[in-house]
Amino acid sequence: MSLPLDLSELETTAASDIKTKGWPGLMRRVRAQGAIVVTNHQHPEAVVVEAQAYQALLAQAGASAGATDRARALQALQAEFDARLATLGDGRLAQALARPARRGPVKLGEPR
Fold first, then answer.
1. 0.85 cut: is pTM over it?
2. 38, 69, 99, 110: which is deepest, by most CB within 10 A?
3. pLDDT tens digits, residue range 12-33?
4. Could you tell me if residue 21 is left (phi over 0), alpha (psi between -120 and 50 degrees) or otherwise beta?
5. 67-95 burial by CB neighbour count: b if 16+ within 10 A, else e?
6. How many domains does the chain have?
7. Which domain holds residue 66?
8. Residue 89 in 3-state DSSP?
9. SS3 of 40, please?
């Protein structure tokens, strides 16, 4: 069941009604509606959802946070790669490859 993002779109019940009408009645309404906003003096204090819906919401939030972390890591890697690639394109690599390697005379049999 998809829940609305705005609390004003959810059904509400006063905290005092839960005391007088009981918890089972509230849970019947939660199962029917998906979520109920509990108010105290007409101000939202809590949202009651079934345990399974709560676990699903936590899983979605965790997956979203993980995806955000992965996206940030990929952006950082891309920026590092682009910076290194830019140094290759500025001509220094071509100049280095165009010059012969500087080596001194090599004598066979002598340790370096």
1. no
2. 38
3. 999 999 988 899 999 999 999 8
4. alpha
5. eeeeeeeeeeeeeeeeeeeeeeeeeeeee
6. 2
7. 53-98
8. helix
9. strand
